[in-house]
Amino acid sequence: MGQPEHLEQRAEAEHRAEAEHRAELGPGDYDCRLAAYAVVVDPQARVLLALWNESDILKWTMPGGGVEFAETVEQAVVRELREETGYDIEISGVLGVDTFIQPAHRRRDLPGTTRPLKNIRVLFRGGVVGGELRNEVGGTTDEARWIPLVDVPDLPRVSLVDAALTMYLDSTPGIR
After folding, report:
1. What pLDDT does residue 55 have?
2. From the CB of residue 122, how many other CB atoms can be counted at a distance below 10 Å?
3. pLDDT for res 150
4. Measured distance CA(93)–CA(76) in Å, rounded
5. Which SS3 state, helix, strand or coil, does residue 39 take?
6. CA separation, residue 172 to residues 40, 57, 176 (Å)
7. In the chain, what are the domain boundaries?
8. Mind listing the pLDDT tens digit for each residue in 5-34?
């Protein structure tokens, strides 16, 4: 599920620079965003993805999103999947947690901020229990689609897709 080499090299250089800056930050020097996502794979080995529209280039992502103040991560992932895909899901476990540091200069939510953002993304295994596939209207995604797992490496996608599918595949016997 790797990216092209030039993108990997750029990401590695950014990671080194961010790591140096992070070492200087204290607990109150950055913002946090808690989010919840689900990996939903059907019996035909297709994964449910959503087309994220908040980038210069449209990219596929895992369905899910930010946890609202008064809800749990479990409630958030169920709500987000319904909003972004039209499906009602049941979660059957936590696959893992992925964190991502967004430097202040790359934040779109607060232009001009000097505070980096630590994204904490809880990834669940989920299954469809109701609803019908539909696209989100007026949100952060434009399209929801079932995509064969074998086609995912050729898609423009955010890094969360690779992290989530690695966790899913590592925890699912006989799928590789």
Report:
1. 78
2. 20
3. 96
4. 14
5. strand
6. 12, 31, 8
7. 5-170
8. 666 766 676 666 666 555 678 878 899 999
